[in-house]
């Protein structure tokens, strides 16, 4: 099958669309990447979306508008992906949608909300859509995150030394794979979220990120502020655990600055980069990882990457691209994989990584232009993933 994966992370910058040719061969999944695009949100929709994120108050009218408008934006991204990446030959769309709220309290998750009505995607492409990919895991007692563990475990298994996948989105998450022991996956804390909030704070909203780490590179970490931020109880919770901007958002930063005082913008950015580096390294240290493969928007910040590499040593920090997948497109390919597995009756999350009581089929299906015709469920669950070069 050719499957389109659609994703938008906590930074809500735009929609990632990736196309993949996927095939099951007994316990092996073959994935041939066909390409990736980023489709920016319209400026007014992005503002409307950000204005509705916690801790802001919102209304059901705003939720309805966002569900519709995000669905329409995802539909346009899927249409472009089907035409430009799949040559009009896609079979299925898997849409993560846009997370608006992740209801986590301590170590428990009670619900999660992703918006982006899939009927718009099905209508624009004529293809069936798998959406709402996290809720079944939450209903089974899991965190609903990090779903990336599924791809990471299939891709990293069989290595001689322990390895980890690190995703640096608004929130950072890791998956640790060690032969002979069950895999572990969890959110470590903020990736880019607090740094982006600090840039918006320093520029009055004129900028969203520290381009190329220029500000952070010009500053020095503030030891007192860093110590205060590291006192957050979330870091001490045992995995599995997950979090989001509901905790690590602008309010979290503002509360810390009220207690410590506000350093110069460059020093603040340097402190927040160090916070991400320290919390990632502390989270991985107990597992003795030899290689850490990084993906996500944070990999484009050289200061952040340098600090993580220094804190992780002697573990090697490497780009996720070394495994054969574009690190910027990893999550879109992940959701394409999950949609493909759902189509074939295979669970889309790992209970040992999310904390669920049982494995669950991920998502719900929206028919395309015709009736749904699913294949017989696969007899064997995959144990390995191989990235192949796409066929001509």
Explain what the structure shows.
- The protein is of the alpha/beta class.
- The chain has two domains: 2-144 and 327-387, Nucleotidyltransferase, domain 5, CATH 3.30.420; 150-323, 2-Layer Sandwich (Nucleotidyltransferase, domain 5), CATH 3.30.420.40.
- Helix content is 36%, strand content 25%.
- It is built from 13 helices and 13 strands.
- The strands form two sheets. Strands 1, 2, 3, 4, 5, 6, 12 and 13 form an eight-stranded mixed beta sheet that branches. Strands 9-8-7-10-11 form a five-stranded mixed beta sheet, sandwiched between helices.
- Helix 2 (60-84) runs parallel beside helix 3 and helix 10 (265-284) packs parallel to helix 11 (302-312).
- The model has no long low-confidence stretch (mean pLDDT 95).
Find the structural class using helix and strand composition.
alpha/beta
Report the CATH architecture of the largest domain. Answer: 2-Layer Sandwich
Poorly predicted runs are none
Please tell me the overall pLDDT.
95
For the record, give the distance between the C-alpha atoms at the N and C termini, rounded to a whole number. 15 Å
Shape: globular
Number of helices: 13
CATH homologous superfamily grouping of the largest domain? ATPase, nucleotide binding domain
How many domains make up the coordinates?
2
The tally of beta strands, per DSSP, is 13
User: Might you state the CATH topology name of the largest domain?
Assistant: Nucleotidyltransferase, domain 5
Using the CA coordinates, give the radius of gyration: 20 Å
Helix content: 25-40%
CATH class of the largest domain: Alpha Beta
Report the β-strand fraction as a percent range: 15-25%
Main sheet overview:
8 strands, mixed
Series of H and E elements: EEEHHEEHEHHEEEHHHHHEHEHHEE
């Amino acid at each position: 099958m050719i499957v389109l994966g659609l994703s938008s992370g906590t930074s809500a910058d735009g929609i990632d669309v990736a196309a993949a040719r996927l095939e099951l061969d007994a316990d092996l999944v073959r994935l041939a990447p066909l390409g990736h695009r980023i489709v920016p949100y319209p400026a007014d929709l992005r503002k409307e979306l950000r204005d509705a994120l916690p801790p802001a108050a919102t209304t059901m009218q705003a939720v309805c508008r966002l569900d519709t408008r995000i669905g329409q934006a995802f539909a346009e991204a899927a249409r472009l992906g089907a035409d430009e990446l799949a040559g009009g030959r896609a079979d299925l769309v898997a849409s993560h949608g846009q997370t608006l709220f992740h209801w986590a309290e301590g170590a428990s998750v009670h619900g999660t909300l992703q918006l982006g009505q899939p009927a718009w995607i099905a209508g624009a492409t004529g293809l069936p859509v798998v959406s709402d990919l996290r809720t079944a895991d939450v209903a089974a007692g899991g965190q609903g995150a990090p779903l990336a563990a599924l791809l990471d475990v299939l891709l990293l298994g069989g290595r001689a030394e322990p390895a980890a996948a690190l995703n640096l989105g608004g929130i950072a998450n890791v998956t640790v794979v060690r032969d002979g022991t069950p895999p572990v996956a969890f959110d470590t804390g903020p990736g880019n979220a607090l740094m982006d909030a600090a840039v918006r704070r320093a520029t009055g909203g004129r900028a969203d990120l520290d381009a190329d780490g220029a500000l952070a590179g010009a500053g020095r970490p503030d030891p007192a502020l860093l110590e205060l931020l590291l006192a957050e109880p979330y870091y001490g919770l045992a995995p599995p655990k997950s979090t989001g901007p509901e905790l690590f958002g602008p309010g979290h930063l503002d509360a810390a600055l009220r207690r410590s005082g506000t350093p110069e913008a460059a020093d603040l950015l340097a402190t927040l980069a160090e916070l991400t580096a320290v919390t990632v390294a502390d989270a991985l240290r107990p597992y003795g990882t030899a290689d850490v493969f990084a993906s996500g928007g944070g990999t484009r910040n050289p200061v952040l990457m340098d600090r993580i590499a220094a804190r992780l040593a002697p573990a090697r920090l490497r780009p996720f691209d070394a495994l054969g997948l574009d690190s910027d497109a990893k999550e879109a390919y992940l959701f394409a994989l999950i949609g493909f597995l759902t189509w074939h009756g295979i669970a889309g999350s790992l209970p040992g990584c999310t904390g669920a009581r049982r494995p669950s089929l991920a998502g719900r299906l929206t028919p395309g232009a015709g009736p749904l015709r699913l294949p017989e469920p696969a007899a064997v669950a995959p144990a390995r993933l191989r990235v192949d070069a796409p066929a001509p």
